[in-house]
Specification:
The complex is a heterotrimer of chains A (399), B (515) and C (326). Chain A has 399 residues and is mostly helical. The two termini of chain A are 12 Å apart. In chain C, 56% of the residues are buried. Chain C has one domain: ABC transporter involved in vitamin B12 uptake, BtuC (Orthogonal Bundle). By secondary structure, chain C is mainly α. Helices cover 64% and strands 0% of the residues of chain C. The termini of chain C are far apart. The chains are: A mainly alpha (399), B alpha/beta (515), C mainly alpha (326).
Chain lengths: 399, 515, 326
């Protein structure tokens, strides 16, 4: 029997490449979620006797209306980008890194140590070294639950959260001990912060290039964040590690049967994730305050999770989502000052948004798949009818 | 395979006078992209075994799932005992006396037999375990079923699990029992036992719907046969009025060959050698596969097939013994190394071991080879362009029907998914091809294609290890047949050996000499 | 070190046991029905803030015939915390059962939203975002009959306990009975082990899973309310201290068994007590305070890493179910 292959007929080549369909679907899902959130938020606004237009307008104007306002938004967004990237990297590999919170705190401690103890380093080198130590701290803190997961199967959701708790105590100990405040005895209450770093450790201000005030603290770290997002995109889509991570996240059994070493890849993901997490605190530490205060939690780790989901764990989406979140975060102040609605309303808005987004994304995914199945079946049918003619011919020959 | 019995299957003629119990008229059922049932009509009578025959994807299971209320249907009507009914859920179906035993059992592993049987019909808000077991025992005895109501499902054999499934239906007083591919997982002896049970049920006035693609068995047990092809009814007949070849032709729409020509190749050196392997369920397994030879491992599922494949591929730790491929010791190697050493793997589970469904075709085409020089550079950057071109070539050569290589693997049909896996695995010029249940769930066209590819591998001098639960497949392809039972090779046979001899080996019988 | 310290530590351990056990039982119902619930912490948080409000709101000025001398404030606080927890959990149920969003994603979202929602509610209830008003009443404490007379200071562990501790311990009976001796329990467990099997027999999986999740919210909410009403006598942001996750760890350790869960909950509960009462113990005295405070977290990690190999979760928990969604 002949084994000549049958040519698979091309069905009207590429009317619409699938990645565009996917993107359109995701964008639509985001918009629908936003609309739902705004609508439900309106209900609350009206309950307070205000008009939704006023409130939303205030938020929008506060974020986009002035240069400084937008500058603040970008400053807020900078750490969120790193945080969301850290979450997304692990998520693509099928893991949940809820420990960004603790990882960036530890990163801040190690960066502070470097900034204080290595202050003999010249000029900008101090800044780079401090950042490097920040990254290192994040890596160490992330790798511990990572190794535990790979070696013992301990679920990373619980272990990373426990590490968060430990990190808080660690920061307290550091500020009480090795990094104690010594610069001005008596006046400032000790145990609340470290000494100030040398000015050379500070990340240079970016805002002044655009006429944005220095009190906004918009630093070059923003550029770093965007570049990092692009690098993460490249890693996930174009590099072998990203490919293997995605395979593990989507189908660990097939990845394993294909020879991918799941444990090794997962640990590498935690390392990268930890490194990204370590950068989260750098904006506050080296872009703004230039010392480490106690009680600085700011929930950047958890917010990063929200931003990651909002951005569909896609580096490009994450940058956009971080900016959106920055607008909302600044909007809290606007709402507080300009309306009778309490600032916590924005938090509710954010909450509704996250819930809506995960639901709409899920629905969009299913819809998209159904449509792709339909198209694929059309292809199959067309190809079959073409092949049937061939087979009929063959069969006649055999008889 | 013939099993002689003293009861001659009826031909339905004597029962033609009884009014039909179930009448399905003009049933249409669509799924995204496919019409599973297209204007199908079917009649079921009391006290008969009615076989529903067709290849994979013909719509037989779908039709019965519609009857069982698991799917809604778009067109047509159903009448039970003369009255038009709407069946919205299994609950409705059970209320009408219709029960179904699925191909893949739906039993709760951690519950006992009795708990599984009474689930959903417990009788009271507070449970009484003893009472439940008593009732189940009574029911089992009434039909001659051997089963212990207090046993936990995890500990039961496949044949026993099937009995539990049937008991579930009987417990609900069904008159119509639908069995979906019931013998797929049974040994020849268990199949006999099942048929005896089915005859007892028929004598008791029950109706059995026997969905199967195994024509020999259908001819043995059925009173009437309905043939489906691509969602339509193409024939209704009885065993006395038809033959296996005729049924096959109705199923596929053209005459098919049951035996492909096996290329004549002189086997070379032993390529794969397993000695005394203890891994998972395997207990001291010895096996050899030579170059240019296809060794078929026959056996009922659950005797170590999965562990055998996994052990060779490094997915299952080997406790003792050795696995050697062309002089290289695989025993302690990781999967990636084993593949590099020349092993290709067509796994039994397409979805959980073969493909990453959420990835595209081109991404799947390099799974396992993404690190190779032609697909990625030293720094770890992948050469997307090259990979896509290679994928396009594979899709063309192996007749994978898809819009383009950017489409998600999830959109492919089972047959095309399997072709993609084959393409990927065979393209790497392996020394050993390990194929486990390679044609499970495929339609005849795809089965033929896969068989051809496997024979081609032999013709090119490769060693092929074929693990299959389908004796037809083993006979069609293998040069040597071995039987696997409880983790050990229990017999070696030539393809000329009669099936019941092989069947005995599958049950742990005496080692027969290869003739 | 006087044994009285140990006694006090055990007493505190019982307090935290109550929180962890109740929450863990909630998690048990949810996971047994097939829905992984890591949002227990969030549900607990809702319980804390609403429980505090309920207590304030329903505290009658002075008994005037009505009231029968019962402390209605705390009682209503506990009840309201429970109901609020269940209501909040309905979001998790809707998102995972009806919309089939990944269960862990949903749980994480629930936790995020809870923090914000608690702040918002606090603003409405108390006029400030992060804590409640002072002067919140609580239930009358009880002394356990025999145990409170134990010698060597151990008796202190069992004196002046909140009645809720007793309630928590007694919970094991109705929970065990409902899961293993009732029709409802059998069906619920089948949804968690093999929902296809359940469905094929006419058992309606979606409603049962809703019930499982709502119960988990109710119990976690009750635990939270207990925390704010009976333990800290007030609501404060962050007071849940990750106990919701510790409860998860306890649940895993107990292999999803309500009786074993008691032991696990007590181990973790006692770990909480160590930094609070045993800082001056011989070895611990040498370690900096902040490190001792890490104890509960370290214990949890060690337990998860060391003892989890042999557990068996409900087979279908975590997987999307392709059947009916309502």
């Amino acid at each position: 029997m002949a084994t000549a292959p049958l040519a698979a007929p091309q069905v009207g080549s590429r009317e619409r490449p699938e990645w565009i369909e996917n993107l359109a679907g995701q964008l639509l899902a985001l918009i629908v979620a936003l609309v739902i959130a705004l609508l439900l938020g309106s209900v609350i606004i009206i309950a307070y006797g205000e008009s939704p237009g006023t409130v939303y307008g205030a938020i929008f104007h506060y974020g986009f209306g002035t240069k400084n306002g937008f500058g603040y938004v970008l400053t807020e967004a900078t750490p969120l980008i790193f945080s969301a990237l850290a979450v997304a990297v692990c998520f693509k590999g099928g893991m949940f890194n809820i420990g960004v919170e603790g990882q960036y705190l530890v990163g801040m401690v190690t960066a502070s140590w470097a900034a204080l103890k290595l202050d003999f380093l010249p000029g900008p080198l101090l800044m780079w070294v401090a950042i490097a130590f920040g990254i290192l701290g994040g890596i160490v803190w992330a790798v511990i639950p990572g190794i535990l997961k790979v070696r013992t199967g301990a679920h990373e959701v619980v272990t990373t959260i426990m590490m968060n708790g430990i990190a808080v105590s660690l920061v307290a100990w550091a500020i009480n001990g090795p990094l104690k405040y010594t610069q001005q005895a008596g006046f400032h209450t000790p145990n609340l912060r470290t000494d100030a770093f040398r000015a050379s450790a500070k990340i240079p201000d970016l805002g002044h290039l655009f006429g944005i005030g220095s009190s906004v603290h918009l630093s070059w770290l923003l550029i770093g964040a965007v570049v990092t997002a692009a690098l993460v995109w490249f890693l996930l889509k174009r590099m072998r590690l990203g490919y293997e991570a995605r395979a593990i996240g989507a189908s660990p059994g097939s990845a394993r049967a294909g020879g991918i070493s799941i444990g090794q890849v997962q640990i590498k993901l935690f390392v990268i994730s930890g490194a990204l997490a370590g950068l989260v605190g750098m904006q506050q530490l080296l872009g703004d305050k230039n010392y480490l205060p106690i009680g600085y939690e700011a929930a950047l780790g958890f917010t990063g999770i929200a931003v990651a989901f909002l951005g569909q764990n896609n580096p490009i989406g994450i940058v956009a989502a971080a900016i959106l979140w920055g607008v909302l975060a600044r909007g809290e102040t606007a709402v507080q000052i300009q309306t009778t609605v309490p600032r916590e309303f924005v938090i509710i808005l954010q909450g509704i948004l996250i819930i809506s987004v995960v639901v709409t994304y899920q629905l969009a995914k299913r819809r998209l798949l159904a449509r792709q199945l339909q198209t694929a079946a059309d292809v199959e049918e067309l190809a079959d009818s073409a092949a049937a003619v061939d087979v009929e011919g063959l069969a006649k020959e055999d008889r | 395979m013939t099993i002689r019995t003293s009861v001659v299957p009826g031909d339905g003629a004597g029962r033609a006078s009884a009014p039909p119990l179930v009448v399905m008229t003009g049933i249409t059922k669509r799924f995204p992209g496919v019409v599973a049932n297209d204007d199908v009509s079917l009649e079921l009578r009391a006290g008969e075994v009615h076989a529903l025959v067709g290849e994979n994807g013909a719509g037989k299971s779908t039709l019965m799932r519609v009857l069982y209320g698991m799917y809604p249907h778009e067109g047509g009507t159903i009448a039970v005992r003369g009255e038009a009914v709407k069946i919205h859920s299994p609950r409705d179906a059970l209320a009408l006396g219709i029960g179904m035993v699925h191909q893949h059992f739906v039993l709760v592993d951690t519950f006992t037999v009795a708990e599984n049987v009474i689930l959903g019909r417990e009788g009271a808000a507070i449970l009484d375990a003893n009472e439940a077991e008593r009732r189940v025992r009574e029911l089992a005895d009434a039909y001659g079923f051997q089963i212990d109501p207090g046993a936990v499902i995890e500990d039961l054999s496949v044949g026993e699990e099937q009995r539990v499934e049937i008991l579930k239906a009987l417990y609900r007083g069904v008159d119509i029992l639908i069995l979906d591919e019931p013998t797929a997982v049974l040994t020849p002896a268990e199949t006999s036992a099942l048929f005896a049970n089915l005859r007892a049920l028929r004598e008791g006035g029950k109706t059995i719907v026997f969905i199967s693609h195994k024509l020999d068995e259908v001819l043995q047990i059925a009173d009437r046969i309905t043939v489906l092809r691509r969602g339509k009814v193409v024939g209704e007949t009885t065993p006395s009025r038809t033959t296996k070849a005729e049924l096959a032709e109705m199923m596929v729409g053209r005459p098919i060959l049951f035996r492909l020509e096996k290329p004549l190749v002189e086997p070379g050196e032993a390529v794969l050698v397993l000695e005394g392997v203890h891994a998972g369920r395997l207990r001291g397994l010895d096996l050899q596969v030579r170059a240019g030879e296809i060794v078929g491992v026959a056996g009922v599922e659950g005797n170590g097939q999965r562990d055998l494949a996994d052990a060779i591929m490094g997915l299952q730790p080997v406790e003792s013994g050795s696995i050697v491929l062309e002089g290289q010791d695989l025993t302690a190697m990781g999967t990636a190394e084993i593949r590099h050493a020349g092993a290709a793997f067509v796994p039994e589970d397409r979805h959980d071991q073969g493909l990453v469904l959420d990835m595209t075709l081109w991404e799947n085409s390099v799974l396992g080879r993404q690190g190779e020089g032609e697909f990625s550079r030293r720094g770890g950057i992948m050469l997307i362009g090259k990979i896509k071109r290679s994928a396009e070539r594979l899709v063309h050569d192996y007749d994978v029907r898809a819009r383009n290589v950017d489409t998600s693997a999830r959109t492919l049909s089972g047959g095309n998914q399997q072709k993609l896996i084959l393409a990927r695995e065979l393209d790497g010029d392996p020394t050993l091809v390990l194929a486990a249940q390679p044609t499970r769930g495929l339609d005849v066209g795809a089965i033929e294609f896969v068989w051809q590819q496997i024979l081609q591998q032999k013709a090119e001098g490769r060693a092929v290890l074929l693990i299959s639960a389908e004796l037809d497949e083993i006979y069609a392809l293998a040069d040597r047949i071995v039987t696997l039972f409880e983790g050990r090779i229990t017999g070696e046979y030539s393809p000329n050996a009669p099936p019941d001899e092989v069947g005995r080996g599958m049950l742990g019988g005496v080692r027969a000499e290869a003739s | 070190m006087p044994l009285g310290d140990i006694g006090a530590a055990i007493g505190i351990g019982l307090t935290y046991f109550t929180i962890i056990y109740l929450t863990g039982l909630g998690g048990l119902f949810s996971e047994r029905s097939g829905i992984v619930n890591i949002g227990l912490e969030g549900m607990m948080i809702i319980g804390t803030v609403t429980g505090s409000w309920g207590t304030h709101h329903f505290t009658l000025p002075a008994p005037e015939g009505l009231g029968w001398g019962l402390p209605w404030g705390p009682i209503m606080g506990l009840l309201i915390g429970m109901l609020a927890g269940a209501a909040f959990a309905s979001i998790h149920a809707l998102v995972t059962v009806t919309f089939r969003v990944d269960q862990i994603v949903s749980g994480v979202v629930i936790n995020l939203v809870a923090i914000g929602l608690a702040r918002f509610l606090s603003t409405i209830f108390f006029g400030q975002a992060t804590q409640s008003n002072p002067g919140q009443p609580h239930l009358n404490p009880v002394d356990l009959p025999l145990l409170s007379h134990l010698p060597w200071g151990l008796g202190a562990a069992f004196q002046r306990l909140s009645p809720m501790v007793v309630v928590a311990i007694l919970m094991v009976f109705p929970v065990w009975f409902s899961l293993y001796r009732t029709r409802w329990g059998l069906r619920l467990r089948s949804c968690g082990e093999n929902p296809e099997a359940a469905r094929s027999l006419g058992v309606r999986v979606a409603p049962l899973r809703y019930e499982g999740v709502l119960l988990s919210g109710a119990l976690a909410g009750l635990a939270g309310a207990y925390l704010s009403v009976e333990v800290t006598y007030g609501w404060g942001e962050g007071q849940t201290l990750g106990l919701g996750f510790i409860a998860l760890a306890a649940l895993i350790l107990s292999n999803w068994n309500p009786i074993r869960l008691m032991l696990a909950a007590f181990i973790f509960g006692f770990a909480q007590a160590i930094p609070l009462r045993l800082m001056d113990a011989p070895v611990l005295r040498l370690i900096p305070d902040q490190f001792v405070r890490m104890t509960p977290y370290v214990v949890t990690i060690v337990v998860l890493a060391g003892f989890v190999g042999r557990v068996r979760p409900p087979a279908a928990a975590g997987r999307a179910y392709e059947g009916a969604t309502t």
